[in-house]
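Cast an eye over this sequence plus tokens and explain the fold to me:
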Amino acid sequence: LKPARHEDLPKLESHGALRCLCCAKECRAMVCKRDRMTAVGQKRLQTLPRLGFGATVAALLLPVCAGAAEKLDDATEEEAFDCEAGYGKGIGDWETAWSANKAAWCCEHKGIGCHSPSSPPFDCVAGLPNWKLGWSLGKKLWCCKHKELGCEESEDEPTSRPIEKASAAASAAASPAAEAALAAETSETCGVAAVLNEQGFFRPPESLQPVCNHHMATNCSVSYSSMQCPSGCDYLVPNHRFVCVFECVPKEQCSTSNPNRAFADPETGLCLPCSVEGCALCESRGTCTQCHDGFELNEDGSACVFYLDKAWHFDRIVMGVVYAVVALLLLALLWRCVKGAHQNREGNLKSIMRARRHRHLCKVHNWQLGNAKMVREMYPLTVDVHNVHILGVGLPLFYNSICFLAVIAILFTGVTYITFTGAGVGVGLASADRSDAALVAGAVRPEGQAPAVVLSPLAPCGQGSAYRMMDDLREFASSNYYAIGLLYILTFVISLVHGKLQLIAARRYDAENKTMSDYALRLSGLKKDLTNEAELTSKIEESCRAACSQPAFTEESKAVEVVGVSICYDYSKEWSEVDAMRDRFLERMDLDLQKKMVSDSHASGNEVPEEEHISAANTIAGDEDELRRQVDVDRRQARAWFDADSKERLQSTGEVFVVFRHIRDVDAVWAARDQVCRHLQPLAESIVDPVELFQVFSEPPSINWWHLAVHPAERNKRVLKAMFKISAIITFVQLLIVLPYSRFILWPYSTIGSSAGGAKMQVAGAILGIVNTFMGIQIWLTVFGLGFHRKDGMDMMVLCSNTALGMINTFFNIITSCIMVFSSSDDGFGPWTLVKMESVVAIGVEGSLAANIYNMMMPGTFFVGYLMCIVMAGLFPFAWNSFLMKVIYVWRCLPDSILKVLQVFLPWAGDLTLDNYPFARAEKGFEPMEVGISGDYSAMIVNPSVCFCMLFFVSPYVWKTFFMMFLSMCFYYCFCRYQHLRFCKAAYYTTNRLDTMVNFLWGIPLSVIAAAWCLWGIRSGHIVPEASTTLKLILVASAFKVSLVAWMLAYRFLLNPWQQHDAAESDKSTFEDVKADMLYTWFNCNPVYALKCEYYYKDACRTADSIAQDPDALQVSIISARGLRDADWLPFAGSSEPYCVVEIVGKPGSKHQTHGHKHGKNPVWNFTTEFAHFTDGDSLLFTVLDKDFGKKDDVLGQVTLSGDRVAGGFTGSLELEMGGGDAEKGRSSAKAYIEIAVCPPRVAQPQTKVCIKGIVDWIPEAHRPDPYVICDVVGKPHMQLKTPMQSHMKQPVWNFATGLDMEPNDTLVFTVLDAEAAKHGVCLGRVMLTAAQIRAGVNDKLPLEQNGKTIKACLELSIEPNSDDLLLESRARGGHPLACGEDPRQVRYFQTGKEYLFVRPERQCLVQKGLIDVLEFETYMEYVLRGFGSLIGLCCSSVKRSKGAPGLPARGKSREVLLQAERGEPMLVKPAHEP
């Protein structure tokens, strides 16, 4: 094609018929310019825009414009056609095989292939009235040249010559392969090949020309130009589901037949696409005259506006929300700059930072308490999740199931692909609106004529008739029937094998990993008033030994050892009180750990960073006074629950977990269970309910202790009610939200062949997201309160609920798509279409439905949904909660009324004030979602069910869906690794019951395959070919039900998965050995038992520096001092800055210090502290000093409060020694006083009494000694004792008596020092007492050792051990075990996510080691939030911050300040610490 002017090309485009572009250099240069192609060296194929309707042929070029083009032109000139091919004797009839173009060229250049005048290739008279649309291009060229008919002319010049040149160019680009594609166009057989009759079958047409009101199939392989629609239905519109089917319609019905083609083009007689979305009738491609229902035409006709957009103005709503957020941010910034930061900014910020630390630590870690270098580490993402003990047996079984689904997906991909492509129906089912890539894939590339290619969406239509296509479809139906039957049988067998392998994997996991369930048995039917752990342990041990005393048992088995029992308490009525007390206990555990860390850091010199310090101000109580009151209340409540004569005494549920020392003990007792139960029958609640013994397969964290009192019958009633409630919620949401959304938003867009978008979809998406979140929360809350005794029961209920919700949501969308697809067809197609092979159009409807399902699954369900989980459950909550925490509790940058509204959206903060943000609530607000295998499993049931539904359809999307399912499983496997190991909070799955339930539910997708198998048997005629449509549909539904029942029966009775067996274990590890490697036991996971040990058992409730011990702690308040001398009297030295130090005499580790005060002579401190190691009789020493820089602090005065005055309580003033204004040698003419208040302990706790009497037979080498004694508890420097110094005494007598909070294994070291010699590190003597000596008691003169040698001098001591320590030691084996982890004295309640509370204070630095992981998204979010906070601080740095009103009393101190004001004293408080 060598047009003289570039303007000729649009004229050719206007035909909508055959279009050929040759390889000539001039043409190619023009094409390169038109499509902006590179000219030289381009190796990839470039496609031209299709000219007019898809009835186009384009010779697409690899533009090597320059030299390559010239070579191509030369080649074209030399040999355009191989005239020898197809010409000669015996080869065939060249007149029918050759195209007119080839015949003309060969006749002109080679002298062969010339037509005789008596046999022309075309009848130029036939079809002459409609030659423009009815003739093929070859016929136009021949008739114009030889008969001068069908010649096109323009205003400037005739176009017959350019068209003739186009013919020659097309001939030059053609070959025998291309000629086959153009054969129909060069003969009189191209046109209507079949007409769909009233019965839905194709019949032969009466003529090649189309008729009105019928679906027709064409055999034209290039264009529709040879056909002309009759008058009254003048426009040809292709079917949008099947490329070879079309119909003739009036202008107004173009969009009715094909919603994508609303423009009736009068020049081509074709219905073409309109650029106006929602238009039903286009005047031109960009101008609309009538819109579809649900759309309204604007004034200039350039757009059809969706009616909801016009009525509700969704764009304005979205922009209004955006403007409101921006305005709120500006107001916050302005408020922050003017008002300043929160008055408790530093404290609340510490809580938030503590919560962020907790977010990292509550994830899945490998805790190793015995490791000297690393107590925790995150598992690598490449860890063997199939075998490593991480969160229980449930995790490896979950990953095994993902691999199983990947195998199933690849199996179905291969079989469906082979079946579909082997039947030859793939080409015929191509869509009419295929992409350019699809056209290129099916292009004809003539050999020897590269780079020319021939493209046409109608190419498949010339390869066979409609009748042949229906035959291919029937053949496909038969093949598909056998293929799906094979797939069903293979899947059924593979599923059973998978179920068996899962059971084997669970038992192997149990055999290879020692867990707490291996050492426990569950005993039921006991009296409910048996709540004394020690007595019950002894009775059970006696019964077990008696039952195992038979000769059949070995000697080891007869010596059964019971470590203890964990009683299942019935606290269903006190559930909320127990949970609240437990939370306070955990909060105090965290606070105790912090105090110990700070104390140890002072002793070791490794200071804990200030930003990590938390105190009572960071608790829910808000201050130590309220915290002490809470502890006192909790203790009283514990006495009410556990005292034998209390009316509120907690009863048991009649069940206990019996914990044994060895696994062989468990096996022996289980073997003799009948005899054991018979011996324990006197302890039974009633004769009707005998004592029974059960094996235990769940771990302690998986026991729902609060539901153990719920009877199974009651639980089943609750389950039925819950099912009704969940069904009602789902129905409510579907009918009132999802259905209107589909009807009023999705439906109007489906009628125009488009999809909704814009602001309305943002609003609808937000609403649906909130609704789905609400439904998920409602399901979890409903299941949580049903009364399941174990977590796996809850997980199974959550699985079933989520699966039901997913099924309903997904299949509701599928049904909606079906209705949309069937309603958009005017041929009466419906679900009954799926049970027969009636027409190509019906198959096209199937293809549209399959395409909708595929688009729904890909990429949304398969990939995007999982990624959105990270965003909606991770990124968004973290950023949102962080922002709210900062706005409310750090910046306080909005009015309180707005902050109270925002507080509602902050999790776990609705009942808090705006002043204090407890770290425990911040931790809950920051916690990520738990590892939710039950929710993950539901997707593995729903998604395969949807994929298997694709088997009902004839579509290339079937095998594509299964291939995407395989890719999705591969992606999901990697995604779950990241989600479980770096994203979610730890949660334990310690049984295989959840996997068993999943395998039962697998019958649903398996039965979908069976239903598809039955359907294709019906469609292929192998099953009830003469039955009615209704009977066929019933048979399909019956196949689903029969398969479901068959699977459940086969899985239940062939594998028997519910019958659990304890794996045989030969390891001789004891309970203590396993406990040393784990964080939880049957005791510290029991909340009531942990509270009982903390608040009721006296031998378990005392810990060092514990705020929980307030009743037995000494409280001291240092209020003020007056009359102090000015120690800094020199010029320019400033005024004194006095502070006070208080300590227990003889206990140097008990020092507490007030802050310094600038008002030198009359300071006011208002300082309150406590002494946890106080002993009745201890004295207090108060020392007032002046803080100096560069020298030792001056002593301004000191006074001692004797032990008897401390024991009786004291409030008042004491005169200080060395306190006068003109002090001289310890005397002063003016008097100084200190005002204090001492509150003695309310509960006297037993301690080990230590009395250091004196030394007998003093060391003869000592000359004028000044001796004193130091007593150290090994490993506990804060418990050091120090006697007063005796000046120049060779036979010193101290009689120093006090008490120590010692543990049974503690040892004491007494060291005698001389004041002068001690400066040089000289020790005068030492004596050590072992734990056994201390427990036995000491009252004797013990010889001192010096340099490893015994000397003559003796130290006279008296040690009176704690009687409760002896009691604890005596029943350590047979009584109630109190420990887990590293501390053998205290039951620390175990809560998943707070495992770090079990690490010793001195090793907490190892917990912080490697806390930040680069694979956690929080790492980068924290950087962003930190930068945002710095930006706000920078914006407000030039504005003076408000420090609050002067004289404002601190929280909890208002009463004392007002009393000072009444007495006329100044109201002075410590100024707020400036950040």
Observations:
- The mean pLDDT is 76.
- The first helix runs from residue 8 to 13.
